[in-house]
Amino acid sequence: MNDPYSVLGVSPTASEEEIKKAYKKLAKQYHPDVTGNSPEAAKKMQDINAAYDEIMNKKNNYNPFESTSTYNSTATEEPLVYQAAQNYIRYHRFREALNALSQITINERNAKWYYLSAICHANLGNATEATLNARKACSMDPQNSEYKNLLNYLETGRSTYQQTNRSYGNVYTGGLGSFCLSLIMMRFCCFFCC
Length: 194
Prior knowledge:
This protein has about 190 residues and is mainly α. About 65% of the residues lie in helices and about 0% in strands.
């Protein structure tokens, strides 16, 4: 990839706000809905996303692939992308988490992939996609109570999902789960009120 700053058209001394503004402008210009799924625009959009992620990661000194203490030992059997996605989610960087998850091919996606994707979509306000992904996770692993609780929450809005922040599979730990739950509830309320 080229220099990420030149891809976004900003200087290396640009503020986060300037970087975000440049990113949004380019994303609107090269979005598949605008370009009619042009292969050239799709490549440009990939470069724009990669440049934005690289710049923001540098600014925040953040490495999504770093190990975390809440990640259990069985995680080493899974692709590193899951750990990256969970770290992004932990830091409320849901778009980056989805970008990381997109590296897993469709035929390699497991129940956990759909669960993490559901969390991201719910926090980004896409209730339909979140619910579909949660259903898929439940159908692939029907015994997983976390997946069932998330689906129940998404479908009914009940607070049973709050009980899931005790085990590993839930990327939220401690008070963060309650905070994310509050965000989801606010988005649902806004969705139904507006």
